[in-house]
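Why this split exists: single-chain examples teach little about how molecules sit against one another. For that reason, every record in the complexes split bundles all components of an assembly together and asks for one structure covering all of them. Below is a record exactly as it appears in the raw files.
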Amino acid sequence: MEILVCARRVPDPAENEIKLNRAGNDVERDDLVYSINEPDNYAVEEALQIVAKVGGNVTVATVGGDDDEEILRREMAMGANKGVLLSDEVFGGSDGRGIATVLKGFVQKGHYDLILTGVQAEDGGAQVGGMLAAMLDYPFASLVDAIEVLDGKKLKVSREIEGGNKEMSEIDLPCVLSIQTGINEPRYVGMRGIRQVASLEIPTYGASDLGIDKASVGESAAKVKRDDYFVPALGKGAEILAGNSEEIADKLIDLLKAQGGLQ
Amino acid sequence: MTARIFAYIVHKAGAADDSATELLAAAKKINPAATPTAVVTGWGRDLDTVCQSLCSSYGEVWKVANESLAYPNAELVRKALVKVLPQGSTVLVPHNHFGIDLGPGLSIKLNAAFVSDVLGIDGIEGSFLKVVRQEFGGQVSAHVRCDVSSGVVINLRPGAFKPIECAPAGGAVVDKSGEVGALVAGRRYAGTIVSESGDVDISKQAVLVSIGRGIQEQDNVAMAQELAEAMGAAVSCSRPVVDAKWLPKSRQVGSSGQTVKPKVYLACGISGSFQHLAGIKGSPFIVAINKNPNAPIFQVADVGIVADILEFLPELTNRIREVKKVSV
């Protein structure tokens, strides 16, 4: 099975306190720790596990710039056969639809049975996978938390719905699935693994390579644009307990007693 | 803006989802003078019951009956909506597991803009709709403008729009079923697997010590268990702890896990994503312990402690044990 995984490099919210820059038009990006978007990493692991069972290849593609190569190499160190950078200055400022348009151009250059994305990016809206599927007229399922290959033509997939319940479906190939975290246990990537792929070439494709109409991508085509960032003033917020840790613990114990939190 | 506003109504067993009233509130924020139209897809008696129930709040209720829509398969629903919705419409959809399946693809097929997971609407400015979204797990918000001149699909965050009082709409059901025809999809529903209950039913606990990503390692889960034992509480968690397989799914609080109604909720190393908060009902006393002072959990907690839980939890456990010893 030929599998394409669409991945992104994002500031890792587990590693960063996200703050606004002085102008308020962006978050402060200077000291941010970037990593692969977490659900995308699960998607790559899932692709590797499928290929281990039924054969095939895993390609990881990202829309971005030179800095984004690092996540491609990381996923190649995990075992992906190929990393591809989709990069062109005309892609800058694309909204979700623009990114999906770029990915569609790449998909149509090759032949993929299965396309995976992460369910959502840290600064995104769980949208690119569903848009890409509609553009390609492929079936789509979001929030996928289990995949079983039934034969060369279809999959059995489970979607995570409310209350921990699972919605089961059969889906025809080729299709697009957005992958939920927890679907598997992504393998560890060590420095040694990264070094082994450090010199592999990463092909780069621009708009003309992908046959993309420049008017359909980038900032000028984007219907959705961010004006600015802000930190909302939300009610009074929590009363922050101050003092040394012993004092804080004692204050908290008093509060817990009053609220019935100590039984 | 004169575009017609449609609200896609999610329903189950003959009852409209809570989002039906939230979508109405959002529609009034887009245009206070608008008379939004409910669109309901489904089949059989349940569909008719839902349509009738919506007539008191929506001026018009479009019914799309089709046997293949008896279960809400987003691909089939999309194909039906593309046939009935007029060009340039504003379409509101709840941002839940169904809306995430439906919204993005629907926007492509309607050639409309798409804006996802919206939690505030500032209004219309020319051909732009101005909305509020959150990014980075709710650590920052963003003002977003969306060109709605060729229509828009808006996925609205569940719970973000409070239902508003409206005069009875006295609406009527309009049957649009005849415009749809036969529907086929590349994805076919094959059943629902209901979650298994675990060793502890967290939905029935009065006090929960809940852990999140801040617990960092499987071995540290014991810290929370010891604290819970000292307090007479049970341990629950947020999604990353289940993803890492450190606790079973039955311990997860959130929209994709359990809904809990404790008296006291101790959120330890939990950032407070809206999916997590959606699982906490009944206004408990929330204590948040997190080393990131910007964590959104501090906005909803009653009391906050900015600390590393790996240091603070054992101290708190010891202190509680001492206090209990004295009082015995």
